């Protein structure tokens, strides 16, 4: 076999191998993109818009978020802390009627505090906290983003007189508050169930625990702030 034929064969083999590798890389990229879309939902679209439609740049950003925060395991809230946070959120909803902006400022503060208590980055590191929340609560985190912008406008948030925008941001933020507290309640109730089982085995179960669980379950009743509840809107 001549040297020229050998060179041609080598070139063909290299080309075939390169084509196979390229297809594998493209397939992996497409699969990763679909996985990120499923995981991040609306956050994927926001990242895409932020990068002017560059899907590779958007996916790199989201992959970096997963690498930084994907291993985070949120901690359950103590029952007493959960009750305090629930009471404060109810007060925020009531405050909105007379003072919408003050209520939104307090909602921003409370969400940061609850997220920090669950084990996310502290509230004074807002961007990092938001990034971590987007990995674990992608479908609810935008409400926090909206109330934070409203609480710290700097020209980017809603106008001070835009009560409807404030109302909508607070309603959307409630979804994240409920996600953070409901998931914590589920974990806490699981722990309490184990304790109750141990009490039953020892013959020491009490009715008080059942009443406490029942009353706490009612504290998460749905809430909707309708336009007619807001003064001046």
From TrEMBL:
Q: Which UniProt keywords apply?
A: Membrane, Transmembrane, Transmembrane helix
**Superkingdom as given in the UniProt entry:** Bacteria
List all membrane-crossing ranges: 6-26
Outline the segment boundaries, as ranges, of region: Disordered. 49-75, 182-233
Compositional bias (Basic and acidic residues) = 49-67, 189-216
Q: What is this protein called?
A: Secreted protein
